[in-house]
Amino acid sequence: MTAAGQFERGTDGPRVILVGVDGSPTSLRAAAYAAGLARRQRSRLVAVYVGEPPSMVGWVPEAQAVAQDAAAQVGEELRRELQSAAEDLGIAVELRTAQGDPVTELSRIADELPADAVLVGASEQAGHRVIGSVAVRLVRVGRWPVTVVP
Fold it and tell me: Which residues constitute the signal peptide according to the record (predicted)?
């Protein structure tokens, strides 16, 4: 509120929005929602792609190289899609990539920024109902507001 007791418009809201993307339909919807929010709030938008390293036990070196190349291709395709969408909306987006556990890496980057809001797509995997999805695990961390986009 201002000194006169009136609310100021356009000064509230997140300054840094982090969105987790992995190429799934729900993560792309989360990215679209985050982009619209960033545009309306004039926030910085940071998209994060976390490649989960495959279990390397018993893999031959050629298979490891193929898996790493595939992850790099997914990251590059996401970069192109996000950049195109951001240009259409007239906003800037920064894409960061990491390898490891998605919750650990999203949390680390959100803390580094620091992020005011974290958005992710809802999991489409049935097994996550038992062990917990990335979204549920991020909510449990509880350091930022987490929005889960269906």
Answer: none
Strands (E), 22-150: 44-51, 93-99, 117-121, 146-149
Per 3-state DSSP, what percentage of the chain is helix, strand, and coil (rounded to 5)?
A: 45, 20, 35
84 is written with which tokens?
Answer: 């195109």
Q: Which residues pair with 45 in a beta bridge?
A: 17, 93
pLDDT, tens only, 21-33: 998 999 999 999 9
CATH node for 16-149: 3.40.50.620
Dump pLDDT digits (tens) for 50-69: 987 766 545 666 777 777 78
- How many other C-beta atoms can be found within 10 angstroms of the C-beta atom of residue 141? 15
